[in-house]
Every structure is written in C-alpha cells, then in structure tokens.
C-alpha cells in the first residue's frame, strides 16, 4: 500500500490483506498534527496496490473521504462505467460491478 499526505512517515508499506486503514496509519507513524482525521474511514479493509492520501485540515477532498485508487489508473465515472471499468476500482469484483450496473439501470427506468 502507498500512503501519503498527513501521516508522519509516508511511503510504501507491505501489510496483510486483512488489515484496515487504522493499522496502516499506525505503521506509518500516525497522523500529523495537520491531518483531517475525521475525513478518513479508519475501518476500510486494504488490499495490495491501494493508494491512500490523508487530507489536511481545512482541505476538502471530494466527498470528505480518503481517496483510494490504483495510482496508475485514470478516474472512472461510476455513472457511465462498464462492468470491466468498475472492476478496476479497489474492492469491486464481478458481483458488485453487476449490482452497480443493475441499480443504475433501475434508476434510469424510474426516470422514464
């Protein structure tokens, strides 16, 4: 995992797949004094190649959550993404990608 932003020791860390973000932050020395710790979901489970940026206080980061993405990937519009595009996102497999598409189609039908 790669963690940067407002942690004391940003960098790449290898940790077990069953660990959560709180474990990685602890390994990275904890939050800095300038960290916006309330904008971070400490309970999320991590997987290899996660990119985590801890925001600073006073800086809005989209919807207020920590950004998780594969650093080599482009942004994906979940409102228009195909199943294959959705599966490129962290923790999105076949089943969840299909449910996202089905939900999207259901909502589109309700609008008509």
Summarize the structure in words.
Helices cover 26% and strands 12% of the residues. It has three helices and four strands. A four-stranded mixed sheet has the order 2-1-3-4, with no helix packed on it. The radius of gyration is 16 Å and the shape is elongated. The chain starts with a strand and ends with a helix.
The proportion of residues forming helix, as a percent range, comes to 25-40%
β-strand number: 4
The tally of helices reads 3
Number of domains: 2
| Outline type | elongated
Largest sheet data: 4 strands, mixed
Note poorly predicted spans. Answer: 63-73
User: Structural class of the helix and strand makeup?
Assistant: alpha+beta
**Overall pLDDT score:** 81
What portion of the residues fall into strands of 2 or more residues?
A: 5-15%
Succession of helices and strands: EEHEEHH
Please give the radius of gyration in angstroms: 16 Å
């Amino acid at each position: 995992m790669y963690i940067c932003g407002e942690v004391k020791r940003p960098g790449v860390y290898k940790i077990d797949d069953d660990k959560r973000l709180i474990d990685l932050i602890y390994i990275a020395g904890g939050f800095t004094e300038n960290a916006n710790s309330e904008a971070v979901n400490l309970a999320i489970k991590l997987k290899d190649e996660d990119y985590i940026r801890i925001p600073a206080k006073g800086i809005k980061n989209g919807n207020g959550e920590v950004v998780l993405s594969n650093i080599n990937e482009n942004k994906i519009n979940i409102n228009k993404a195909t199943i294959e595009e959705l599966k490129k996102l962290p923790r999105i497999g076949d089943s969840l990608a299909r449910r996202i598409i089905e939900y999207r189609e259901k909502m589109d039908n309700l609008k008509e």
